[in-house]
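Hi all, long-time lurker, first post. I run a small reading group and we've been trying to get comfortable going from sequence to structure in the token notation. Rather than ask abstract questions, I figured I'd post a concrete chain and ask someone more experienced to write out its structure so we can walk through it together at our next meeting. Sequence below, copied exactly:
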Amino acid sequence: MQIISFATEESDWRKPRPGIILHRGDRDLGFRLDCEKLFDPADRPTNLLAWFDMDGPWFQEARKVAAAIVADEAAFMAAQEQRWLVPSSDAYWFAPVPRPGKIICIGLNYRDHAAESKMAIPETPVIFSKFPTCVIAPGEPVVLPPQSKQVDYEAELAVVIGRRAKNVSATRAYDYVLGYTAFNDVSARDFQFADGQWQRGKSCDTFAPMGQTIITTDAIPDPHKLSIKLTLNGQTMQDSNTDQMIFDVPRLIEFLSETITLEPGDVIATGTPPGVGFARNPPVFLKAGDQMEVLIEGMGGLGNPVVEEKNA
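-- Answer (accepted) --
Happy to help. Here is the structure in token form:
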């Protein structure tokens, strides 16, 4: 199942709502299920993140209805008559989690990336965060802060949490995962290295492109066997596989949930492979007019242009 957050002309463009892309086999049916329309307005959650709770009534009903529509032509026609379906061309996509409660990032989680960064292989996960205001959708521009001259790209696989998780063992970790999405951990390296900590350099506005969709775990049984790439203006800059992670997804969830309560809609960015711009010789930093694309196997592309702040 593929989950999106979207809006249409008939709705408030500033208020994303949840949707499900409808496929029959490999064929896109050309419609998105508008999950909000399955419930009366008074019965809908006020917080979009509640839709990502796999134990919640809203997620359960939306998944059931989507499965019925895909399986049965009569159910598909009935959903059209009830105006539950939105033509794909009418849907403006946001990031699949437009405002996560938490964005938790893992540093130096690929061995080759640690080596190119001239840093030791970590013995435990290196944790930092990005602010929710960083998040942008596929196609939206990454804005270069005028104060930074060294903005860099980082292709990453992100995990979206689907259940409240505290003290979860690695053996049960997948029970708490809703799905996966592509992520670009854009970073101002001059901020990151000069400040003595990473928060400002990682958390500039627009520095967390995400999407296109959340691919649920049933469609990706093993997140550690996926090709992961980043292209810059058509040139491949990063090209690896998620099997190169030092700490896998279950270990990360176990480690994080020991001290941090994970909640539905939280996003964990699992680290980047080698090939980042600052480690190249000569270094490659983003400039206005560039086009980046993160490509993860089974997820499509996450493309974003780069602009100067005055043109944003």
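A couple of things your group might point at:
The chain is about 15% helix and 30% strand.
The chain has two domains: 2-93, 103-311.
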